[in-house]
DNA sequence: CGTAGGCATGGGT
DNA sequence: GACCCATGCCTAC
């Protein structure tokens, strides 16, 4: 504690010292007086009441000379010297006085070492304090108590002259019983007990600790039970910040009657959640306020179980994900561990018996890990206890001590609103249930991690009421992935969606910033799959969003400035003619309306939003489908979904397509059966042709049987191809300019990539190189294919197919592909493509556990279409859902080939604002250099840990073509 | 391959 | 810049 410099009161000495313990002034053992470091003369009594400086109450006057003296705080030069005989000496007149003749204003100033103050004859003016340590009673003057509690901002202390009972420890007012006691005699079982702690311990060490507490005068009063909350609540924000910064604060004796005053006199204190300055302990002065126990008297009572033991709240901690996780390690705040738990010198630590609130004893291993020349303390083996208390991340555990036994007890406090969400609630989110969403929104904290999704949800659920720009979601670099993950994890884990009770910053610190790292392990992930998939079905690219493309580890990501929006569940069907439709239900009339397959449907959709069909842009318009058809559709759709889920996301490729076709049939009736069947059959054989998908490949008739397109054709396919081509060229130009700027950098980068992949990269093409870009460096898949009469519409840089013809032969000048060529290739059936490229199976060379099994050409094509359309569509099977397919993971930057568009909802290691990912280009020939095994392993681990969450099989057909 | 233990890392304060 | 601590990550089992 930094004390003001002062001089020894011994005139002969006159030494001036800095006033720090051990630096001129010593704490006299056995007492509370300071000793001059020079002459050893006892100086003042201690004193931390400088908070009362300058206030009337901070002065006392000598009964002899009448001079008003300072209360005796250290900063003061005017002191009363407490004499050994119990008297005091005025440093002004040097006259000795009887202790009681001095009007003390500060309770602390009158604490006399090891001595009880005789109160006889003055009982009406005194409150009784019983020192539990020695059983003595100390009568404390009312105004002194007032001053003490004045530290809490309390000035309206009840008039004990009217209601007090000096012969007792307690007194009453307004039918409430008050007890003046220190924390050692605090008895939580005493109803209405206020537990006023006056810091009147006769334990020098105790008081020394108190003196030393943080150097904060306001904290130096060890009024552990009457708390900081009162102070914090009545203190200005700036003062609070000062407190948090450990700066000295001179609290104003606020008029608050928070605890005692009339306004709240009817209100029991026992339920107040107060942050109690920590109890005594080694180094407790360093405890951060966040660890201060905010235990209520009620909880203390619960812990004490009705016994007469004294409960000393020690500290508390909000459980992190890892604390509450299955590892069973509860990280203890270092300062807390060192202050309140037994000292340990070996990392192995020692077993610690801790009682839970139910009275059950647990034995944890209290140990530490060396960490950066420091220690990290943990309690091991807490899982059973945590589970028994049904605690989750975000809940709080409190540690207290039962005195005098010194037994440790562990209480807990569930986070507010910590009611695990039911499946239905989670589904409600996934389904965009407005009322539920708004509930969620209300309960969501406005913190960075949630705000984005919050706004997104809000904007989607209640677009008309959303006043917040959704793009703020990314304002601080927190990605969609993060946001989604956070919400998802909390939903899944049943974590509380913190209400707006705590200041944002605090919540952010305690929950959100940490929850960024909330971990979902595999089991949770499984659970999440079922629900989050639903949610993913609903995500749509923001309308008119123009993504920028980033390539990471050969995977392309489209980075959107805007977050995805939640869409509405729709059902896709195929018309007999081969066209695709999308069916959406009006929120008002509940009629199903047919929309174009590529229409983006927001979560709230009504008939009047039907811009595509004016005839049915009103709820009064009749249904297009008959009731029976609708029911069939819904039933089959549900069945499809059910089967899909039950197959664990790895269902055979045929299933969804087949079922969907069935659904289509059901809708379209017998008339269309034949045609639809053919589609379904074809789809089964050709995974790239998927009903509902409007990608460049899937929108065509399968097997290349469709009509040939003229150069001037404006059909969907041709238009898409044109857009695609245009996009390619634009990107190429952009890239060229970028390349010229950073040729050197890229050289290094390519070198690195080449090192990673060169060993088996047939064409020696740097990973992720754009085909067009590659053409300039000697590789042009288009040209290569043209050489054999085909073009790879899904041309990917790393194709490096078995023919090895994609090697570095100069093919400059062939970078431009004609529209007709594109169309031609687009019409090529996949089998032909494979055959012509010497491939017989897409899976034959691909490990079953490959992290890129979905990276089949059709998927690429689909993604590219997504880009071209600038949006996404979701089917009820999620097969064209805009997010990564299983097993793709961004990893390290690399050049930038053409794009795809799909949102990533997984967690990224780095907060990249990447929401788009493309399947790895042609995984068949993807090199597997030995020296990147570790990297791959890491990727796989990440995949299993993270993307498992979202790794449902988007592209339902597994790449199996036989 | 999964899990647990122990240390390392890095964001936050 | 130092420290804390949540969690990553490696290794052994």
From TrEMBL:
Compartments, record wording: Nucleus
Pfam families: B3, zf-CW, zf_VAL1_N
Domain TF-B3: 315-416
Positions of the UniProt region annotated as Disordered: 729-814, 862-904
Coiled-coil residues: none
Domain of life: Eukaryota
Domain CW-type span(s) in chain numbering: 577-627
Entry protein name: Uncharacterized protein
UniProt cross-references to PANTHER family, sorted A to Z: B3 DOMAIN-CONTAINING PROTEIN OS07G0563300 (PTHR46245), B3 DOMAIN-CONTAINING TRANSCRIPTION REPRESSOR VAL2 (PTHR46245:SF2)
Biased composition annotated in UniProt, kind: Gly residues: 803-812
Organism: Spirodela intermedia (Intermediate duckweed)
Nucleus keyword on record: yes
GO cellular component term, pick one: nucleus
This protein's record includes keyword Repeat: no
UniProt GO molecular function: DNA binding; zinc ion binding
Keywords, sorted A to Z: DNA-binding, Metal-binding, Nucleus, Transcription, Transcription regulation, Zinc, Zinc-finger
Segment forming the signal sequence: none
Basic and acidic residues composition bias: residue spans: 736-751
GO biological process: regulation of DNA-templated transcription
């Amino acid at each position: 504690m930094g004390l003001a410099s002062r001089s020894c009161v011994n005139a002969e000495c006159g030494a001036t010292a800095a006033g720090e313990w051990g630096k001129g002034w010593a704490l006299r053992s056995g007492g509370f007086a300071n000793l001059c470091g020079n002459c050893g003369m006892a100086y003042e009594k201690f004193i931390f009441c400088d908070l009362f400086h300058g206030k009337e109450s901070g002065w006392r006057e000598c009964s002899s000379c009448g001079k008003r003296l300072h209360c005796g705080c250290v900063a003061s030069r005017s002191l009363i010297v407490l004499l050994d005989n119990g008297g005091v000496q005025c440093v002004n007149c040097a006259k000795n006085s009887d202790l009681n003749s001095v009007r003390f204003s500060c309770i602390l100033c009158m604490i006399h070492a090891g001595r009880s103050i005789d109160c006889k004859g003055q009982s009406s003016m005194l409150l009784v304090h019983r020192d539990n340590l020695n059983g003595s009673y100390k009568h404390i003057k009312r105004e002194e108590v007032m001053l003490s509690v004045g530290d809490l901002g309390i000035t309206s202390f009840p008039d004990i002259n009217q209601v007090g009972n000096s012969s007792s420890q307690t007194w009453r007012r307004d039918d409430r019983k008050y007890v003046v006691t220190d924390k050692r005699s605090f008895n939580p079982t005493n109803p209405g007990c206020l537990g006023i702690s006056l810091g009147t311990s006769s334990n020098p060490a105790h008081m020394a600790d108190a003196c030393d507490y943080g150097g904060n005068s306001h904290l130096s009063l060890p009024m552990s039970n009457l708390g900081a909350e009162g102070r914090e609540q009545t203190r200005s924000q700036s003062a609070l910040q000062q407190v948090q910064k450990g700066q000295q604060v001179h609290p104003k004796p606020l008029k608050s009657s928070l605890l005692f005053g009339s306004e709240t006199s009817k209100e029991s204190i026992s339920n107040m959640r107060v942050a109690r300055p920590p109890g005594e302990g080694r180094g407790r002065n360093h405890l951060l306020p966040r660890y201060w126990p905010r235990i209520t008297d009620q909880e203390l009572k619960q812990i004490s179980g009705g016994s007469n033991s004294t409960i000393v709240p020690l500290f508390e901690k909000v459980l992190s994900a890892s604390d509450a996780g299955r590892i069973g390690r509860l990280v203890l705040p270092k300062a807390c561990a060192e202050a309140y738990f037994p000292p340990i010198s070996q990392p192995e630590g020692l077993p610690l018996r801790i009682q839970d609130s139910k009275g059950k004893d647990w034995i944890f291993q209290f140990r530490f890990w060396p960490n950066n020349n420091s220690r990290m303390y943990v309690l091991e083996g807490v899982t059973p206890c945590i589970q028994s208390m049904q605690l989750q991340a975000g809940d709080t555990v409190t540690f207290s001590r039962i005195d005098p036994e010194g037994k440790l007890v562990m209480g807990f406090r569930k986070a507010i609103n910590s009611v695990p969400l039911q499946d239905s609630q989670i589904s409600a989110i996934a389904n965009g249930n407005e009322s539920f969403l708004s509930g969620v929104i209300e309960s969501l904290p406005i913190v960075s991690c949630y705000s984005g999704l919050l706004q997104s949800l809000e904007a989607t659920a209640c677009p008309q009421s959303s006043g917040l720009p959704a793009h703020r979601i990314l304002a601080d670099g927190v990605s969609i992935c993060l946001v989604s993950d956070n919400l998802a994890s909390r939903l899944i884990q049943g974590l509380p969606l913190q209400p707006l009770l705590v200041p944002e910053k605090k919540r952010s610190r305690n929950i959100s910033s940490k929850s960024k790292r909330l971990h979902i392990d595999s089991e949770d992930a499984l659970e999440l799959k079922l629900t989050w998939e639903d949610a993913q079905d609903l995500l749509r690219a923001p309308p008119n969003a123009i993504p920028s493309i980033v390539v990471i580890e050969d995977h392309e990501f489209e980075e959107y400035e805007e977050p995805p929006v939640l869409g509405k569940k729709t059902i896709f069907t195929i018309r007999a003619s081969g066209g695709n439709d999308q069916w959406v239900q009006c929120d008002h009339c509940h009629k199903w309306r047919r929309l174009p397959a590529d229409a983006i449907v927001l979560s709230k959709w009504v008939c009047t939003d039907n811009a595509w069909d004016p005839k049915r842009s009103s709820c009064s318009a009749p249904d297009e489908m008959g009731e029976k058809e609708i029911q069939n559709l819904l039933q089959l759709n549900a069945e499809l979904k059910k089967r899909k889920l039950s197959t664990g996301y790895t269902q055979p490729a045929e299933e969804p397509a087949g079922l969907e076709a069935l659904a289509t049939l059901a809708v379209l009736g017998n008339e269309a059966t034949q045609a639809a069947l053919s589609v379904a059959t074809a789809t089964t054989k050709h995974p790239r042709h998927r009903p509902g998908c409007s990608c460049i490949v899937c929108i065509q008739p399968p097997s290349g049987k469709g009509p040939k397109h003229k150069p001037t054709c404006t059909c969907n396919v041709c238009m898409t191809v044109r857009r695609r081509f245009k996009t390619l060229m634009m990107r190429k130009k952009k890239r060229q300019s970028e390349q010229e700027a950073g040729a050197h950098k890229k050289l290094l980068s390519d070198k690195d990539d080449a090192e990673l992949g060169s060993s088996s990269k047939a064409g020696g093409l740097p990973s992720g190189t754009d085909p067009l870009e590659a053409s300039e460096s000697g590789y042009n898949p288009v040209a290569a294919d043209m050489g054999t009469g085909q073009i790879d519409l899904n041309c990917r840089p790393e194709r490096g197919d078995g023919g090895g013809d994609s090697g570095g032969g100069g093919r400059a000048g062939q970078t431009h592909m004609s529209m007709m060529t594109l169309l031609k290739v687009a019409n090529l059936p996949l089998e032909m493509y494979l055959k012509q490229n010497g491939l017989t199976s897409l899976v034959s060379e691909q490990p079953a556990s490959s992290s890129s099994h979905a990276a089949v050409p059709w998927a690429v094509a689909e993604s590219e279409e997504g880009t071209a359309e600038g949006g996404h569509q979701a089917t009820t099977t999620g097969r064209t859902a805009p997010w990564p397919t299983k097993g793709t993971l961004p990893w390290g930057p690399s050049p930038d080939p053409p794009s795809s568009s799909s949102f990533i909802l997984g967690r990224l290691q780095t907060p990249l604002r990447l929401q788009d990912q493309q399947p790895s280009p042609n995984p068949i020939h993807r090199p597997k250099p030995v020296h990147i095994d570790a990297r791959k392993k890491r990727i796989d681990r990440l995949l299993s840990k993270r993307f498992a969450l979202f790794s449902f099989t988007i592209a339902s057909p597994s790449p199996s073509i036989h």
